[in-house]
Amino acid sequence: MAEPAWLAPAAVALGSGLGGAARFWVSAAVNRWLGEGFPWGTLAVNATGALLAGALAAGLPAPRAAEGPSAAYLLLLVGLCGGYTTVSSFALQTFTLAYERRWPSAAGNVLASLALTLAAAWAGLQLGGGGAPE
Questions:
Q1: What angle do CA 50, 54, 55 make, to 5 degrees?
Q2: Cα–Cα–Cα angle for 44, 50, 51, nearest 5°?
Q3: How far is CA 14 from the centre of its chain?
Q4: For residues 116 and 47, is the Cβ–Cβ distance under 8 A?
Q5: Which Pfam families does this entry report, sorted A to Z (predicted)?
Q6: What is the dihedral of CA 30, 32, 37, 43, to 10 degrees?
Q7: What is the pLDDT of residues 80-127, one digit of tens each?
Q8: Is residue 70 a contact partner of residue 60, using CB atoms and an 8 Å limit?
Q9: Can you give 94-105 as a three-state secondary structure string?
Q10: Could you give the angle at the alpha carbon of 91 between the alpha carbons of 87 and 92, nearest 5°?
Q11: Is residue 35 annotated as involved in ligand binding?
């Protein structure tokens, strides 16, 4: 039996709301712990989001063109991970560091974000069952 038409957008909306709330709490907690002189909270969210996305991509069935993604895929990977990760915040914070002529911090944020998120996505794929997502 086919899923109702409202299920896909509802799954994405629910996941996005949960991801956004988690992003807010995790980022705030990390910033309280490590300080706000560097965007530690955003870096932590992006790295843990990449880890989670990798694990989910490895563990959830890949979407099939004829059927489309499952409700679980839409809820967890598209919604939750999409609402949780903060690439737009990363871009604005990096630009602000550069604008303030804090070049080492701006470059460090780019390099650390790239290295940590790629490593975390790889680790998530391994934790989720190994291999590259389809």
A1: 120
A2: 90
A3: 16
A4: yes
A5: CRCB (PF02537)
A6: 10
A7: 999 999 787 788 789 989 999 999 999 999 999 999 999 998 999 888
A8: yes
A9: HHHHHHCCCHHH
A10: 120
A11: no
Identify the pLDDT of residue 128.
83
Query: Letter for the amino acid at 23?
Result: R
- Residues belonging to the chain: 134
Please tell me what DSSP assigns to residue 130: S
Bridge partners of 64, per DSSP, are 68
- 11: part of which helix (H) or strand (E)? helix 7-34
Q: Kindly report, residue by residue over 55-66, the tens digit of the pLDDT.
A: 888 888 877 777
Q: 66 is written with which tokens?
A: 């004829």
Task: Tell me the pLDDT tens digit for each residue of 15-40.
Answer: 999 999 999 999 999 999 999 999 99
Domain ranges for the chain, please list them.
Answer: 14-60+71-127
Q: Establish whether 85 is an annotated binding residue.
A: yes
Between residues 71 and 21, the one the model is more confident about: 21
Residue that is written with structure tokens 């680790």 in the block: 123
Cβ(83)–Cβ(17) under 8 Å? yes
pLDDT at 3: 77
Torsion of CA 99, 100, 104, 107, to 10 degrees: -30
